[in-house]
Amino acid sequence: MAISPSEAAHRAASDRELVAWVDEADQVLGALPRAELRERRLIGRCTFILLFNSAGELCVHRRTLSKALYPGYWDVAAGGMVSAGEAYADSAARELAEELGIEGVELRFHERFYFDQPDNRLWCAVYSAVSDAPLRLQPEEVIEARFIGLEQAESESQTQSYCPDSLVALQRYKASQS
């Protein structure tokens, strides 16, 4: 399946966005275009927002094929890179609104953790939110979304392609709730 012209334009703009560049202790070193950060295997900041409905089901969504990392994968969290000069909490609110169209909800902070894979080095902040508002998907980033139980999400992640970084965020969230 080919990517649409709007997805391609969105990807190009995204690659040029200035994002926070940090060291292994999460100290800000500066700002770099997102694509350069990836190419040089440097560390950036990101947010993960676990969106639940009032029934306790988790929103999972499938990423578009134009995404630089994990194209077409299922994701258990909304989120993305923290922009240069942006606070984690501001990034989380922006990403939830952009990707899923959810605004004005309380974001509960859980923790930060370091994720380190050769193609994806991140300081991650994990948030959760509850909303029954209708989802408004960003077509350049999200193909489809649905609410499922946590057990189903864990089961599906064994047989389907799920983003490994957000799965770690979910595992850490679950561990903190027990």
From TrEMBL:
Signal peptide: none
Pfam families: NUDIX
UniProt cofactor(s): Mg(2+)
Spans through the membrane: none
Domain Nudix hydrolase: 42-172
MF terms in GO: hydrolase activity; metal ion binding
PROSITE patterns for this protein: NUDIX (PS51462)
Gene3D superfamilies to which the protein is assigned, alphabetical: Nucleoside Triphosphate Pyrophosphohydrolase
Family under the similarity heading: Belongs to the Nudix hydrolase family.
PANTHER family to which the protein is assigned, alphabetical: ISOPENTENYL-DIPHOSPHATE DELTA-ISOMERASE (PTHR10885:SF0)
Record-given protein name: NUDIX hydrolase
Origin species: Pseudomonas putida (Arthrobacter siderocapsulatus)
